[in-house]
């Protein structure tokens, strides 16, 4: 596996505390501890979804604490759709899909900012449908051919 220079950067520009504070703000969490729990849960679940160079590149851009949580997980053989990821997160946290969606969105928008547009595009191209919105991005659809009237 060859690594691109941007993947080998050793020091992320954002600290873990800054990442947690951004998640706290985006998710409107009342305490830092609640935001940190969300970061740990989502980063752990995300670690089971991303593989290859994108996994290495993202880990290099994350603060160390988030990168360790992310890389501690063994990736699944088939990544989940965005909706299945939310349902899995809800089940693991004992919450509802609505709160899991909120939590995923708060954390993954922070992750998207750390990843940058090029790496994020590569990550999204390797994941099934439904992930773009979780990362705060538009979900672009491929036009389908018109069906003929029968």
UniProtKB/TrEMBL annotation:
Q: Which InterPro entries match?
A: DUF2267, DUF2267_sf
> What is this protein identified as?
DUF2267 domain-containing protein
Organism for this UniProt entry:
Streptomyces cirratus
**Taxonomic classification, please?**
Bacteria, Bacillati, Actinomycetota, Actinomycetes, Kitasatosporales
